[in-house]
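Researcher: Structure prediction, please.
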Amino acid sequence: MSKIPIFLIAGYTRISLDEAHQRYSLSAQGDRIREYIKSHSKDGYLLYKIYSDQKSGGSLDRPGLQELLKDAEEGRFQAILSERRGNLSLRRSNSSNYLLSGLLHCERSGGRLVGKCAHGRRGIYSYYVCQDKLRYGECDLDALPQVAVDEAILLQIEEVFQNEALIKRILSKVKVKLNKKLPKKVAELKSLEREMQRKETITRRYRGAFEVGSLDAQEFGFRVSELNEEIQLLRQREVQLKDELINLKVQPVTFKDIQEMMERFEKVIMSAPPSETKAFLRRVIKTIKVHSVGFIEPYYRLPVVRIMSGLVPLIGRVSQLFAR
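Model: Predicted structure follows.
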């Protein structure tokens, strides 16, 4: 009879930013994690440790989470089990599921971090590593533990986008910015239309001069060709400006829209295939600047307009730091 391999799991419990979203206390979350792992003992599941935090907010600078990150970096467990709105979510270290590949940016070499895996004493260890370190060996950035970094970013996205005061403050600033842009864009469009009319008038004059013989064919062709190129560029900008004006005039996003987006985010994280999860993350993450293993700086996109196809991220940024 073959032996079932041991699968070490770390539990993580926390207090939500908004108590309304926290269905279970830290103690109850811990009990649920223990019960879940016990019910899967036949699959080799074994609890390594439960990490806890009572510090709420968007920052990842939390003792429990930082300890979890450190132990994950050392490969002490293979998965993280945490609660998401009353549901237990198991984040495995999976070499085919690097959610943040391409979004992590090395601030030392300027390259991107990609997902890799290696065999360690406790099994397969998945991590993110700078491409320049892989290709040339020139970057001294240490590898990031994949499962812990993925979980940390997912936790922060949930808390940042559920922070009503923060989101409403950003949306208010965005609204002011959009209101300032609108008259400028309208003025630019009118100026562009006048410029196109002026160049078209000049083109007609050249044509008239050519027809009466005061402008030779070669000079006429050169001047008209040059003007047509300029008019074409102006028309391209006109189309772009009109699209921008449409976006500026649509109904702005509200905090309720953001909440609905986060509900979809929860469903994606819980059950969608990795490709859908990655696509969703690329809608809300602009970039993640990695200075070191203990200093990671995510920048998030905030959807600011609502159109028929749903929420579209255009402008707006939320930056949060965490340091061990």
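Model: Residues 305-324 have pLDDT under 50 and may be disordered.
Researcher: Thanks, that helps.
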